[in-house]
Amino acid sequence: MTNKKTSDGKRNFLSIFYEELSRSSLTIIVLSVISGFVMGGILVILTAPEVYKAFGTSFVSGLSTSWNIVAKTYSSLFLGAIGNPARIAEALGSGDRALILKAFTPFLESLVVTTPYLFTGVAVAMGFRAGLFNIGAEGQVLVGAIAAGWAGWSFTGLSPWIHVPLAMLIGALAGGLWGFVPGFLKVKTGAHEVITTIMMNYVAYYLIYYLIAAPLRDPNEVTPKTPWVLESAHLFRFFPDPIRFHFGFFIALMVAILAWYILFKTTWGYELRTVGLNPNASRYAGMNITVVTIAAMALSGAIAGMAGASEILGVTWRQSQALATGYGFDSIALALLAQNHPLGVILTALLFGFLRSGSRVMQLSAGTPVYIINILQAFIILFIAAPAIIRTIFRLKQPAAKEAPLPISLSEKKS
Amino acid sequence: MPPILELKGITKRFPGVLANDHINIKLEKGEILALLGENGAGKTTLMNILYGLYKPDEGEIFIDGKKVEITSPIDAIRSGIGMVHQHFMLIPVFTVTENVMLGEEYTKYGGFLDRKKAADRIREISELYKLNVNPDDLVENLPVGLQQRVEIIKLLFRNADILIMDEPTAVLTPQEVDELFNILKILVEQGKSIIFITHKLREVMECSDRIEVIRLGKVVGSTTPAEASPGKLATMMVGREVDLILEKNPCNLCETVLTVEKLSVRDTLNRTVVDGVSFELNGGEILGIAGVQGNGQTELVRALTGLRKPTSGKITLLGKDVSRSNPRRITELGTAHIPEDRQKDGLVLASPITENLVLNTYFHHPFSKGIVLQQLAINENATELIQKFDVRTPGISTLVHSLSGGNQQKVIIAREFSRPIKLLIASQPTRGLDVGSIEYIHDRILEKRDQGCAVLLVSTELDEIMQLADRIAVMFRGKILTIVKAGDVTKEELGLMMAGIIPTVHSEIVDSTKTRELVT
User: Fold this and answer.
1) Residues A17-32 pLDDT 10s
2) Chain A contact for B44, CB < 8 A?
3) Which residues of B touch A277 (CB under 8 A)?
4) I need a surface site. Which of A249, A280, B32, B507 has the fewest CB within 10 A?
């Protein structure tokens, strides 16, 4: 009993938090998403000056203005993310290819935005499964992008069949290296990966500033920019401009499915999950925690690196100094929302991608700032995380009180 | 005169479970009432209600015939109820006085602590009840038995009349248990009343005036030690006949399986906690390692199973040197390990039973081909083992943390015993389990021994060691004091050895300068 207590006490906040978080049911997740939208709506009302003006004239007009502004915000969010259903139906009816493409453009653009979320979400989920909090996806995305880009413009005369995979691979390797370092430091020195991955983010930021400013700078440009990625390294785009929907989306889907397969269907994944859930028991079972930790961190970094690679090879074709992507941090939220299940990440990445993509139109047509989406995401996470945080604190503070009812509630009836 | 404490119709429900079902209990002034029941029977819940930690769903509490509401430990203390918890609530770096007065400080000159007045009071209490506690000692320097007395003084200091002792003997040597019982007798002679919670039959028979047996949240019988017998009590407690005496075949020795030579191990704080231990273990015998908790048994087992590297010495397993081997190699050579802390080391609580049952065989045929897990084979394995080892669970995919302690242990036993093994290292295999599970696990261990497996049994329960072991090694402060044949030694002698005192007759390896008596 004494040991049990200390073992619970020794476990850090994060691992207990994660365990509590994974107990949230699907209902809670769905309700959190809905509540997030409701809270976002309330916030839109509270921050709109028109509403206050309308309430000044009469209560009813205040209410109707509030309703109108929320309806406008969310409907334009929907239009921006998915498209106008009426126009889609009309275009399909007309059978005109150009019209159909135009109608589906918002939807396809949302998939483009979803792609990096998908990679980074799987990356962070993979780390979490091994008990590692990879906050470094941000940096891993950046080095993945620059490395893949470098491969994309330096190697000439390659067939796309070789050039694209090669560039993707180099991007993944760079991201993997960025994940390997914190994993290695954790195992060898005990440095916590939360600290080291954040530090690696800054190393990545400034390394790339330097690379773009000098060695990798395109000499023909006034502002610091890299050269263009060669045509042979472009990820295949399915439709003519301006639709940017590219093959990277399907690579991301395959990575998510592969990650699921590795995690749940192979001995590697079994070791990775066991180490994440109970390192003591994994040591007891003879698993090599050192190798698993380093490999998981490197793998997580590699997948995040592919996000950067797919962006530069599929969307931007070059890297400029507009750097802060934010994918690394959003991906933590969406991995948690998906309970670190790679297939769940597909759904949450779509949610986040569509919200982000739709928010641009929302800002233009409804005048609601895009930042409302950040707040909305924050609310969703808060609704899921807050109960788990409270349960975690309760468990950390009151191990004895928790133990008392447990032996009984676990008697044969229930189990 | 009304009873000093009466509980009427106490009922407490937890989600899905009735922990206490209309419990009626009376405690007369000046008696020791034993509350006997298996783990999970509802004893602790009941006492937590009495101590104000839980609120009962139904029922009333009377003290001296007056109805009281107890909603917090503060209320309980005000009503004269005190509790000695299983884990002591003491601050090691404080003196006895400081610990005792914590929360009930005497002050002088408007705010300064009056340690002297408190110490005098403690001395007074100590003399009155013959507790033999020096108020100026630091708690961390006191042996466990004395720490427990400090806990008792804390209650007496607050004028408690009703003392609740929750499994007070779990941490004590047999001698310390006897001393505790003497103290309890003195306490009741002086007019205190005691509720004594335990699942050990012997203690109930020895020290109580009355016995209430609780099973599945209900009082299933009241009796007195004069009327009851251990067998009858066990039957009441478990609800069916129980074999208290194990049938054991004579020992059939095979070749040497494990040789340990001058093994030394350090703990995480870099203290040498296993100090030059040597022994041999043969197939077909059980070597019991007895000793009070914390005398190096944990680290000895961790070194033998590869979880901790020894600082010096040699471990030979089936002719191979495994002193520096990793756990995987030792397991693969045919070692099974029932770890001391089953939840920390032995199980992945958040994983299903299926995965826990292949924790150290997942990479073998038929559970995987290459790196691909064969879920069908893993499921079949679980179905088979659950049936064979009688694990009570709704299904093979149930998460292990929702199983009871006994069933969790059966999952470990099933996993470890289903492999071909030559050596079984069982550390506290029955700690915290109910009588039924203990019986089952003991039978299985004996079965392995009869099949020619070498068994190293580490336990702090003397009864368990005495029942199962063929030879007994006593560990004290990191050394094996002596190894004796199980039949040649009495429980009292073993108890003395566990306290570091070697009776002259049976000693084999005695280094008298190194053995020190405990401070008691």
Assistant:
1) 666 666 667 777 888 8
2) yes
3) 348-351
4) B507
